[in-house]
Every structure is written in C-alpha cells, then in structure tokens.
Amino acid sequence: MIVLSNIIVDGLIYGILLFMIAVGLSITMGLMRFVNLAHGVFAMLGGYVAITLISSVGMPWVVGVMLAVVVVSLVSIPLERFLISRVYGRTALDQVLLTIGVTFIAIALASLIFGTRMSAMPLPALLSGSMDVGFRTMPAQRILVLISGILVFLSLWLVIEKTTFGIRLRAAVDHPATASAVGINTRLVATVAFALGAGMAALGGIVGSSLLPIEPYYPLKYMVLFLSVVAVGGLGSLVGTLASALTLGMVDTATKYLAPEYSSILFFIAIIIIISMRPNGMFGRGVNV
Amino acid sequence: MFESKVVASNAVKRHVKVPLLPEICILVAGVVCFYIFPSNLGFLTEIVVMALFVLSLDLLLGYTGIATLGQAAMFGAGAYCAGLFAMYVHPDPLIGLLVAGIIGAGIALVSGSFMLRTHGLSFIILTIAVAELLFAAANQAQDITGGDNGLYGFAVAPLFGIFEFDFYGRTGFFYSLSILALAFLLMRQLVRSPFGLAAKGLREDQERMRALGYPVYRHLMIIYAIAGSMAGVAGGLSAQTVQVVGLQSLSFTLSAEALVMLILGGTGRLYGALIGTVIFMVVHHMAAALDPSTWMLFIGLLLVTTVLFLPKGLMQLFDIFMAWIKVGRRSE
Prior knowledge:
Chain A has 289 residues and is mainly α. Chain A has one domain: ABC transporter involved in vitamin B12 uptake, BtuC, CATH 1.10.3470. Helix content of chain A is 73%, strand content 2%.
C-alpha cells in the first residue's frame, strides 16, 4: 500500500515536471510541424543561468529564478527567428539534423563553461528541508515542483482558452494555412509560443533540478523522455500533454520502485509499446509532423 | 538528327565503360593508403568499417527517405554477436560475419514490424528508443557483454584458414576492404534495379506509391532488413578487427555521427557516403588531441552549417564546381 501511494505521489510530481518542460515543445511542434530535438537545452540553460545568478551574482533565490526564466525566453527568440525558422517546412531529416547540431553545441559549451560534472542548485532555507504532508514527509522542493506545475498548467489554460493570443494559437495549430489566410500572423504566433515554451522549460529545469540534475548532457539524456511525452500526448494538445506526462511519470516512477535494476529497460519498452499502439498520441488530435 | 547522334555516342560511351570501375577504385585507393600509411592500418580499417555502416544508412535515408536515428542498434547488435560467436561457438571470421548480418536483419525486421507503420515524430522516437533499449540491456547484462569494460578476450581464426589476423592489422584491413567493395557492388546493383527505383519512389511520395497499388509496408520492411544486415556486418567487422566491443557501438552518438558523415558527403549517392566517412574520420583523427567537448562543438557547428548552406552535402560543392566549368566552356 505504501509503495503504491509512493508511486502515485512521486509519479504525479515527476509527471508534472515533465509536463512543464515538454508543453512548450508540444505547442511549437503542433504549430510549425517542426521536429525539435533541442528543447531540453532550454531546461538546462535555465538551470545554469539560475545557478550563476544565485550563487555567483548573489541574487535572492526567487529573483534569480524569475530572471533566469526571462533570460531563457529572450535568448530563445533570436534562436527561433534566425536559426530554427530557416528549416520550417523542410524535411523532418533537416530539422532533426539542425536541432541535433544545436544540442551538441549546447552540450559542448556547457561542459566548457561549467565543467562536465553535475552542478548543484542553491536553495533557500525554506526549500532545502522536507515537509510533513500528512501521510508522509516529502522534500520541500517536490512540493514546489507540484505548485509551479499546477500554476503553469492553469495560466497556460487561461491564455489558450481565454485570450486573443490563445484563439490565434489554436487556429494556427488546427490549420496554419487557413489561419494565415484570415490574417493571423502565424510566424509571430510561432515565435511567441516558442519563447513561452522555452521559458516554461527553463522553469521546469530549475525547480526540477533535484529530479533531473543539471549537467551538460541533460538535453541528450532526457531527449527521448521529453519527445515521448509530446508524441504520446498528441502534438499541440495541452490536456493531452498533461495526461501523457502524468502517465509516463507514473510508469517511470513505478519501474524505479518495483525493479530499479531494469527501470530504463522497462521504461523504453513501455514507450515503444505506447507509441507503436497510438502513433498519433493517446489523445491525438491527429496532427502529424 | 543531332540529338539522336548524341544519344548514340552516349550509348557507345556506356559500352566502353570498365565494369566494376567503382569497386576497383575502392580497392586501388585502399592499396595506395596501405602503402602510404603502413603504421595506421588500425585507423584505416576503422574508416572502412564506418564507410560500410554509413552506406547502410544511405540506403535507408538517401534512397528510401527513412530518417532513422537508431541505426547503431543494428551495428552494436552485430558487433556483440560476432564477438560472442567467436568466443563461444566458432572462431571462423566469415561465419561470424554471416551471423552478425543475420542478427542485424533480424533486429531490423522485429523493430521495423512496428516502427515502419508510424511516421514523422513517432517513427524518429521509436528508432531512438529501440537503440536506447538495446544499450540499456547491454549495460545491464554485464555477465555477457562486459558492461562498461567492453567485451574482449575472443580470438578470431585465420581467414580461409590461411591469413592470420596479425598485430599490424594487415589481414583485418584487406578483409574489411574486400567486404566494403563487395557491399558497394551489391548496393550499386540494388539501387539500379526496379526494386531500388521503387525505393526512390517511396522516398518521393509514399501515398502515391500506395495509390499505385504498391505494397509499401512490405517494401519498407525489406529495405530496412537489408540495411540492418549491412549495419550488422559492419558491426561484426568492427568486432573482429578491433577485438573489443564497447557499449558505444550501440550509442545514440554513433547513430548521430554516422548521420553527420552521410550528410557531409551527400545523401542519395553511394560515393557521398564514402567521401563523407573518409573526411569525417580523418578530421576526427587529427582532432584527437582536442578534448571531447571541443570535438562535440565542432560536430554541432558542422551539422548546423551543412543543413543551412549545403543541404546536399559536400558533393554539392563538386556539382557547383562542375556546373561552373561547363558554363565557362560554353562561354568560350
């Protein structure tokens, strides 16, 4: 019973983290039919910027984290405009190659600047201990993951369902040609969505650094994980991405609890089975890259 | 009148062509390298093995349009199988190679049976996931594969019972070179055959091929299996000539590096695969003094610039050059 409740609670938190990091990827892939293997770079970058701002510059934790998120969003804009957007509409292979290239460059720069070992995220006193949540104690960081994840989901939902930008975004995901025919600037929508997604990935990378430690190989190590969340959830679907992130989070946590030695083998088998059964996602809106 | 003359002269030219010219070129180039760099035979063998692996990727990517990121799965499986076969079953190199090829084809058939039904993102993730699965399994089964230390301690019997795999790697080099030339010949026949043309059709438009009544899935499976067996043979060669099999033979980095080599040379041309491999491996060898991070930075920049500026690879430079010469001649 305790194992089961642990799997559910830890899986839920892990899943929420995966959602935060992958949701931007899902939206931009749904928008531009673009295969992006470099999304994890933003999560890693967020982690490194936050560590630098807090440890080296000495900013207060909350300020450092928020500034890091903003910095990553800003950095992602020229990247999308001048690099990524040049392969929109090209073959999937070209997109894969370009984004692998970007990933390799990021890994190399991170190792040259920060070293190849894991970097520890500085934490304020409030977050470094553990908290009693009634039936068990839990590291306070995980509660932070849960809270930020829920906030990200709610604010994204509000933006997508209730604002003009959200209407444009949904229109562009559903049918880009028609959306641009009725006067929606789909390129601008794509850039804004890309920057938003990068910012959320950065936030996920920072608050989730106890679960997915910040290191240079981060973007490569978790590439399959993030991409699988998107593929299983269906491209461009908010609720689908949440559901798939929670499912995969639970599956991964369950394999780690029940068969720690075989966890990565079992996890890949699970991903292979899920994706081959539902290649357009569990809740797929049928958008294909 | 004039046109028919041109056609006729072309036809005559084609008859004069030396048969097996490309294969002879490969062998001659190999022999020349053998005499110029006698102390680097290990490295030369590595290039030859990689060229075979990249050739298998070219069949998938360049000719059939299957964008895979997990070709190392077949390479690594072939390598481990050849090593284990030599260790426990039979030390003969050719039988070992055959087994490696069969294993490569088998893995391709099993994984292809579900992967090739998907497209786009799902397909790409599945190719990575299958290779990662094998990597994790090989890492887990340390009793069999040696895990991080690698699989070593297997001996390969002399080729045809005569040529021993010596310390200098002479046998290993000519053995790999012959296999590469043979594979190149088979590939050339394959891509020119109706079967190969149909593969190009699949690359251009799968839906149309389906509409024409073509058995698309079956065709993809056969090509995937052929490429898988070639990758398996390349892995087997690597195991037999290096005599160590490491986990990196199943790694994502190997799949990505093979892609870089292919893209560098230019996809969809068999020469491109060879030239790209040679350039990449030589640069890698010269940059061995660099630390791994700088090397990774280099590959990344190379990928980005190639995709943006030379989408058809370095062979595009050659095309541009030839076109430039032609224009020059015409203006004269």
